Amino acid sequence: MSEPISALNHASFDGIARIEECGLQGMITLRGDLSDKLVTKAVKDATGQKMPGQREAFVDGETGVCWMSPDELLVLVPYAEVEAKLAAMQGALSGVHALAVNVSDARAVFRVSGPTAREVLGKVAPVDFSSDVFQPGQIRRTRLAQVAGAFWMDDEESFRVVCFRSVADYVFKLLKVAAQPGSEVGYY
Asked: Which residue from 56, 60, 113, 161 has the fewest beta carbons nearer than 10 Å?
């Protein structure tokens, strides 16, 4: 059996911000009634995090939970633990109208970091990145130029960006162009 590899094998670029592919990340899409106590408990058991509200992301390293829509979460766990966490989650949700699916190998994750990270993402996504509007612990699900994506802030100067694996090369190149030296706009 071959070893899994990430979409771009840890590609990186240093410009006005650092762009790097994060590598393998365990991801579970969970659909269901997010107010259901069994769903809340399954999320807490898998991640140690409470249930996020609208546009919230509670992430610590490789583990966390992100609100994706009124009935959908993205559950993050270490890649090596995803199958065990998924099985436990499916067992805990037995009899509940919910769906939990491993989407780890269908996604790619990037980090955009540095003092101009907001500016870099502001060039490719129709989101207000000003610090009084978009803060650590928040997530947006939107467009990255021509493709779907989502991103959250880990801290004041770093974002994690999730996209479909099939468009990982496009997103990496898009972020590289937005981070080219000399492309500072100075808006954020």
From this structure: 60
